[in-house]
From TrEMBL, chains A, B, C, D:
Keywords: Hydrolase. This is Acyl-CoA thioesterase. InterPro entries: 4-hydroxybenzoyl-CoA_TE, HotDog_dom_sf. The lineage of its organism: Bacteria, Pseudomonadati, Pseudomonadota, Alphaproteobacteria, Acetobacterales. The keyword Hydrolase applies. It comes from Roseococcus pinisoli. Belongs to the 4-hydroxybenzoyl-CoA thioesterase family. The keyword Hydrolase applies.
Length: 161, 161, 161, 161
């Protein structure tokens, strides 16, 4: 499993993932992107843990980085991903300054939408989320740009529906 | 339907909901809490719409108000709700200064957990979310306090599982 | 002092301030706007207090409300206030669910800029801030719209420099 | 000037600053810490620019990193820095995905307080801020821990008042 994970990671240029990351953080499954993150002060709340909304901001950053890795830009006047659905599961609480790994993969895509899986790892799974993203331009759904579509399928292993 | 909605709303002391709210915002179904909200500058992003994380902060406020209405307090050293799961659906985009209605209900509860439904309304449904909340004290799940349990069942219509 | 404060407050339509607010919160000086606020969960950090950035978001809301009270709208393609300088003093810490009063006044204005004073009150002063705001359109400074200028001087008592 | 800047940077272990950073970003003056940053989606607002509060969160991260570099931890039950005053000047607007350099230095210190200068650079100065930080434990000011005091003076060049 870790084997396939690392080979998948090696395909990403931007994020310097190494085979040992999977072992270091207890990652399971195959992921397209992996980014180290240290929990920030602003991400924690009065309970002393990462606030449930902070996870979604972390993955907003990862989603932006992924979109950029597809040769696209995020701008109000360009086709870009808009969150249509989220299913999040908070498995284990995280604390200030915890060192974690954020991962992303692209399970599938359709004409105007695609799915992302996100996860946070530290000695195994801490958080996981499935997102449905619709490609939107000027307020209406629009086909995924061809180059982005090609890379999601060929590089990220996304399955067309 | 609006009839049952309003009678449910009348049970809440804190939020001054009136029968006409359901009509004004196109609310469907029966809800225990309803709060008017005007979309804030800080809730919008570069797309010109409410950011997907901002909805969850709005409902954090509503969840806090609901917990308080159960005679409880939110403090690190007391039993309190922690988000374990979220299922959110972004139905229609909202813009800066939109006037919306936020609603909350409590579909069910178990010994140490309960569920919340959240929705945002403006000429009908704009956003909906199901949350599983675990009652946690000192990092471990703990039974819902008896008074909170009683009010969730009797006042909010929560169904014990 | 409280006398002048209340008469100033009465000039504001939007925020239902009464003479007793000054006494209730220990307000000193004369203010044009006053809004009650209960400290939110999302505004507090690991220290158990309101995070220093949260005060500035509270006053972003008040600044928006004030701009609207001048007959203006906040939109990317319209003249609107942009923060050029801030001087903030954190006098006493605030905690979750504290009931506070937020106040705003407009000490002075020039052709393309104006100043705001902000304060948070609870048994006296907790936070104060002076802001220099530049009226900006399409990325360059632009004269304050005449109607806004008139109201800032006549209603809010702003002194032209 | 750049000479002194780089030698100062070399003293920091954590942040891999090189002499060329000063030239790349148009940095002026001598700084103790320098961190590259790419403007995030969540930091921008409807105006299409970095929101004025986002700068302060960026420097909260830098302040935390600096405190850690002094051999200290940030915890509710330990002596830690609390913001007492801020003076911020927004010099030039920044946009989504701009590559900037964040810098920090420690101009001076007293028994229970110290000062930080923060700045954001991109082809010269974009933002600058002076902060007065009070060392607080259990809600009251407390002397700066000796090791932190020593490093601020010897490594960061802070001048005792």
């Amino acid at each position: 499993m870790a084997q396939r994970f690392s080979s998948s990671l090696e395909r990403m240029q931007e994020n310097q993932a190494t085979p040992s990351l999977a072992e270091e953080f207890g990652v399971e499954g195959e992921w397209s992107m992996a980014v180290r993150h240290r929990i920030r002060w602003a991400e924690c709340d009065l309970y002393g843990h990462v606030n449930h909304t902070a996870y979604l901001v972390m993955f907003e950053d990862l989603r932006v980085a992924h979109w950029r890795s597809l040769g696209q830009v995020l701008r109000a006047d360009q086709a870009g991903p808009v969150v249509a659905k989220l299913e999040a599961r908070y498995v284990r609480a995280l604390a200030f300054e915890d060192e974690v790994l954020l991962t992303l993969r692209v399970p599938g895509l359709r004409n105007t939408s695609f799915t992302h899986d996100y996860a946070v790892w530290k000695n195994g799974l801490c958080f996981e989320c499935k997102a449905l993203l619709v490609c939107v331009k000027d307020g209406v759904s629009t086909p995924i740009p061809p180059e982005a579509r090609r890379l999601m399928i060929e590089r990220d292993g996304a399955k067309p529906a």
